[in-house]
């Protein structure tokens, strides 16, 4: 039986999940090594004040709780009354195949939906983040100026909307999932033993 994924209460993991970042991307934003981010998330390293301050602009835009599910539907067909009965093993094999394929497509669709939600969150946070990280000032050190220039280019890229092809792909996946689940439900109805009336 597969184990259910635990939702991490670690602040770095929450920020990453909300904005759809990998550990290496968050490390890049924070200006630290990916191993430090991994160490903090796993509890092997402490969250330093410097990292906490760098994380604060993103953390302030993560709500305390968030989640989102999906659903599907199902139709059915009938054979003429004098047709021979179906082979139950073949019908059940196809039913299980449909459900397996639908589950794989749902995972793909869920990834696209999560990506779109993360992009929308970045777009919402972008104005405040750009205020937090203004353009370099004349009295900034070369390192600070370079970091600000980099951040002001990196942040808008995170907020770029997904291309229309991604939305199209998500809708096509939903159509295929619905069709496969409908087929599986119709096959399950055929496999059900006739109940006495």
Set down the secondary structure blueprint.
Blueprint: H1 11-19, H2 23-30, H3 34-42, H4 49-59, H5 88-132, H6 142-158, H7 164-191
Helix pairs in contact: 2-3, 5-6, 5-7
3D architecture notes:
With 197 residues, the chain is mainly α. It has 2 domains: 7-67, Orthogonal Bundle (434 Repressor (Amino-terminal Domain)); 78-197. Helices cover 64% and strands 0% of the residues. The protein has 7 helices and no strands. It has helices at residues 11-19, 23-30, 34-42, 49-59, 88-132, 142-158, 164-191. Mean pLDDT is 84; it is low at 1-8 and 66-76.
> Structural class of the helices, strands and pairings?
mainly alpha
Proportion of beta-strand residues: under 5%
The coarse silhouette is elongated
Total number of domains: 2
Low-confidence stretches: 1-8, 66-76
Query: Any idea what the radius of gyration is?
Result: 25 Å
Average pLDDT reading: 84
H/I helix tally: 7
Number of strands: 0
User: Portion of residues in helices?
Assistant: 55-70%
Terminal CA distance: 38 Å
Task: Characterize the largest beta sheet: strand count, sense, and whether it forms a barrel.
Answer: none
**Topology as H/E string?**
HHHHHHH
